[in-house]
Write a structure and sequence with these properties.
The chain is an alpha/beta fold. Helix content is about 40%, strand content about 20%. It folds into two domains: about 120 residues, Rossmann fold, CATH 3.40.50.2300; about 100 residues, Winged helix-like DNA-binding domain superfamily/Winged helix DNA-binding domain (Arc Repressor Mutant, subunit A), CATH 1.10.10.10.
Length: about 230
């Protein structure tokens, strides 16, 4: 039997009823929304363990909701449900941060197997963070600032906060620019040449006082991207 709370955002009443009944019978608690507007509101404000998200919705689209969820909850498990089976749509959903993609029509057994698999992986996922300890101070994500023990403070822009929080949620892992553009900037990075990531990292290093010789907080990983060092 499954455990946990699932939010399903699906505008087709018959499909939504089938999903809710199947998940409830399997032991999950289910929250449901029938359109993109109410679904997005629930996705960023309600407490739940997994989001089942239709791609085509009235109001906000599934990709619109996914962008907002990834900005607010970068580690939340998401499975996209859609009748669109084309590769470009699957790629867009996965690059946008979805964990899995199920094409309609799907069987109850397949859906439950995907839900169980994603939730089984989720305990090992990086968790969201509210504060990040650094050398000589800490980052307070709620207040958008870096505070130092000597009384110094640095304000973070919304983008700097989102970028640093993404690094913090994946500390110890090298992250390439395409992943950062997809999940922090919410843009398709294919074919894009930009120095935006590098400039933001440079500004963050300055605000974190990580510019004295070799960086020790935000590290450059040659050939891969950037990595936030784990706090020892």
């Amino acid at each position: 039997m499954g455990t946990g709370r699932v939010l399903t955002v699906e505008d087709d009443a018959a499909i939504r009823r089938g999903i809710v009944d199947a998940l409830t019978f399997a032991g999950y608690e289910v929250i449901e929304a029938a359109d993109g507007t109410s679904g997005c509101r629930a996705a960023v404000s309600r407490e739940y363990d997994l989001l089942l998200l239709d791609m085509v919705l009235p109001g906000k689209s599934g990709l619109d909701i996914l962008r907002e969820v990834r900005n607010a909850r970068p580690t939340l498990p998401v499975i996209i449900l859609s009748a669109r089976g084309e590769e470009r749509d699957r790629v867009a959903g996965l690059k946008g941060g979805a964990d899995d993609y199920v094409v309609k029509p799907f069987s109850v057994d397949e859906l439950l197997a995907r839900v169980e698999a994603v939730l089984r992986r989720s305990p090992g996922r990086p968790t969201d963070v509210s504060e990040l300890p650094i050398r000589g101070g800490c980052v307070d994500f709620a207040r958008c600032e870096v505070r130092f023990e000597d009384g110094g403070r640095e304000e973070l822009s919304d983008r700097e906060r989102a970028l640093l929080r993404y690094f913090a949620c994946h500390a110890g892992r090298a992250i390439d620019r395409d992943e950062l553009l997809a999940n922090v900037w919410q843009i398709d990075a294919r074919g894009v040449t930009t120095r935006t990531i590098d400039m933001h990292v440079a500004r963050l290093r300055a605000k974190l006082r990580d510019t004295d010789g070799e960086p020790r907080v935000l590290l450059t990983v040659r050939g891969k991207g950037y990595m936030l060092a784990r706090v020892s």
